[in-house]
Amino acid sequence: MSHWSARRGQVEPVAAIVAVFALGVGLTVYAGAVDDALPGTEPRSVAQPTLSAVEDAVEVVGVVQPTRLSRVDGVVPGGRRLNVTLTAGERRWSRGAPAPKSAQRASTRVSVDLGTGRVRSGRLTVRVW
C-alpha cells in the first residue's frame, strides 16, 4: 500500500458532523458555566435607563407633573416591576408596588409642579426588580 493512500485519515461525514456538534455543545455549556461562576457579575442594570424613560413620561418642558405619574406604567422593562416615587418638600407621590430591598435603584433631582405656577425642587426615584 502506498504512503499516500486515498483511504488514510478519512472519516464518515455523519460521524464528523456529530463530532463538530458535540464540540460546539460542550463549548457552549462550558462558557455558560464560567460566566455564571465569575465573581462580581451582576444582572444588567436597568434602573438608570428606566429612570430616563420615566422622566420623559412625566416631564413637561423641564418640569415634572405629579399628575402624569400614571404614564409610567408604559415604560416598565419587560418582565420587571417598577416603583416610582416623587418627592418635593413634605409632599410625596408614589406609583407601583412597594419595592424589595434587592431592587435596583436610580434617582435624580427634578423640578416639580405644585400647581398654580408653583415649582419646587424635588427628587424622582425609580426602583426596578
Number of strands: 6
Share of helix, binned? 25-40%
Report the major sheet: 6 strands, mixed
Q: Which strands sit side by side, in order, in the main sheet?
A: 1-2-5-6-3-4
User: Helix and strand succession?
Assistant: HHEEEEEE
What is the subunit arrangement here?
single chain
Average residue-wise pLDDT: 86
**Kindly, what is the distance between the CA atoms of the first and last residues, rounded to a whole number of angstroms?**
70 Å
Overall radius of gyration: 28 Å
What does this structure look like?
The protein is built from 2 helices and 6 strands, in the order ααββββββ. It has a 6-stranded mixed beta sheet, covered by helices on one side. Strand 1 (59-60) and strand 2 form a beta hairpin. 15% of the residues are buried. It is an alpha+beta fold. The protein has a domain at 47-128. It has helices at residues 13-37, 47-58; strands at residues 59-60, 63-64, 82-88, 91-95, 104-113, 119-128.
Provide tags for this entry.
six-stranded mixed beta sheet; single chain; 2 helices; 129 residues
SSE arrangement:
Elements: H1 13-37, H2 47-58, E1 59-60, E2 63-64, E3 82-88, E4 91-95, E5 104-113, E6 119-128
Parallel strand pairs: 2-5
Antiparallel strand pairs: 1-2, 3-4, 3-6, 5-6
Short description:
The protein has 129 residues and is of the alpha+beta class.
